[in-house]
Amino acid sequence: MKKLQKLIPFVALALLLASCAKATDETASTTSPSCAPADLKTVESGILTIGTGEPSYYPWMIDDKPESGEGFEAAVAYAVAQQLGYENSAVKWVRTTFDSAITPGPKTFDFNLQQFSITTDRAKVVDFSSPYYKSPQVIVSFAGSKIAKATTIAEIVAAKAKLGAAVSTTSLDVIETVLGMKAQVFNDNAAGVSALKNKQIDGFVVDLPTGFYLAGVEIPNGLIVGQIEGSDAADQGFGLLLAKDSPLTSCVSGAVDAIRGDGSLQLITDQWLTQAGAPVLKK
């Protein structure tokens, strides 16, 4: 009996350690021994390599310079890096297309952020951190377009408007599933914006913060027609994207949870993002 009593604390400790070793994030199947930089299996030893798009737009990155730390996603990236123990000087940026980042296979980055919505299908081929932002989708257009004064989704559909979105985005899914319309597909946001400027399409669908920038800066006489009701119903939010079964996933996800928990993520959100002034297009 005494031997059993002596063993109980050791058994309990073993069970606790085994439990702690399991990844808390459902997308992670392997983890590093610890989340210290010396133990993290990064693309380049001692360096945290972060991917983003080219170009990257305001308010996600300011002046297409993620290394400045200016802009919502740039600030989030550096906050995560610091939480993991990396100085800013140990952060390296690489550029990728949106579509190539979400395809299966090896990655040139440790994590990538360019408004990747977490979806079940994507999670089959890549890993995601816990979400750092959730946004509705909006239609950006220009004064005088056939949908400029639309107030409902029914009016958008009835106008037989030509709507575009970037390939492989949830914006594209929203056009096809929520609006039930056929979309014009572009390789990236830049190509879609060019088409909208040239009035080859009537509207371009993007997330709300990007919509504010496009309407206010990029598109002559630009405007936000409205938020698409129900566009975020199945949205799990934006997550940092990693290679499938990355040994970094649980640590990166834990870092996102930490900056959310200590309030710094909210401060970053308040500084760089706004959701005012966009009416909702009801069905």
Question: What does this molecule look like?
Answer:
By secondary structure, the chain is α/β, with parallel strands linked by helices. The protein folds into two domains: 27-134 and 236-281, Periplasmic binding protein-like II (D-Maltodextrin-Binding Protein, domain 2, 3-Layer(aba) Sandwich); 137-228, D-Maltodextrin-Binding Protein, domain 2. It is 33% helix and 16% strand. The protein is built from nine helices and eleven strands. It has helices at 2-20, 72-84, 98-101, 153-158, 170-177, 189-197, 208-218, 249-261, 264-272; strands at 48-52, 91-95, 111-112, 126-128, 137-142, 163-166, 184-186, 203-207, 222-228, 241-243, 280-281. The strands form three sheets. It has a six-stranded mixed beta sheet with strand order 7-6-8-5-9-11, sandwiched between helices. The chain has a three-stranded parallel beta sheet with strand order 2-1-3, covered by helices on one side. Helix 5 links the parallel strand 6 (163-166) and strand 7 (184-186). Helix 2 (72-84) packs across helix 8 (249-261) and helix 2 (72-84) runs antiparallel to helix 9. The protein is elongated and about 60 Å long. It starts with a helix and ends with a strand. Mean pLDDT is 87; it is low at 1-32.
Topology (elements, then pairings):
Layout: H1 2-20, E1 48-52, H2 72-84, E2 91-95, H3 98-101, E3 111-112, E4 126-128, E5 137-142, H4 153-158, E6 163-166, H5 170-177, E7 184-186, H6 189-197, E8 203-207, H7 208-218, E9 222-228, E10 241-243, H8 249-261, H9 264-272, E11 280-281
Parallel strand pairs: 1-2, 1-3, 6-7, 6-8, 9-11
Antiparallel strand pairs: 4-10, 5-8, 5-9
